[in-house]
Fold:
Amino acid sequence: MADEEKKQNNPEEEPESNAARRLRMTGAEQADSIHEGEAAKGSFWADFWYHHKWKVIIGAAFAFILITGISQYAAHSDPDITMLYAGTKYITATQNQKLTDILESMTEDRNGDGKTYVQLNDVVFYTEDQLNDYIAWCQENGEDMTVDRLANKHANDRYVQQVWADPLICIFSESQYREVARSGGFVKLTDLFADDPEAIDALGDAVADEYGVRFWETKFCKFYDAAQIFPRDALIAVRTVPTMSALTGKKRAEEAQAANAELLRRILTFEYPAGYDPSADPDAAAESTEATQDVP
Structure:
């Protein structure tokens, strides 16, 4: 009677199945509810990552590049020495770094940041004389001319802006060098070595004129392979203090020019290490006798 009365009071209740009883007795229902709660708790981040993961990855990569660039700029924004190469021969970033590493060991921390930093800028372009020589060479050798005249003009403009605005150590192909030398834009060697005039005599045939020295004829270039990256006709000299410095800061320009002049003196008076005999170095001998000609 009790069972019949219970069924009458709960007409919708059905007998519990074996499967339901097993789940209730083992606690599986509770475990499932717990897991569902955990899934619900983490569903926001899972859903966010599913829909936005590429945006997050790209954003993180961009942020890394930006932070790295800013840190490098901050570290190198105020070089102790600034140099400029101008010519028709390209130099790679690795070549640039190897040479500046050597030069940084030869100079001082001018700006007081606790380290030495030499910045070598390079501008590759053809002067009109070089362009005419290149055209003639291409015609003579049956080669196609590959100079983009518009890009060449833009590079030339960038070169003019740098060479006349900043005090620099300049390593120029002869044609670029002559353009500045004709205007008296370099420090005379007699002024550079005013306290040591015999140093000019020691340079011998490497002296090109009253301003510059043929870079490949210096002991520095002969000793360091890393320095042998410029055209064979390259000359090295140091710029006078630019007239524009009256507007941009004359004292700062004079200090930079003095530091550049000191490093140039050290390059030009470089001596081989004790015991080194260049005549006994087959590589050096090959370099000194090699009859090479740069493509115009």
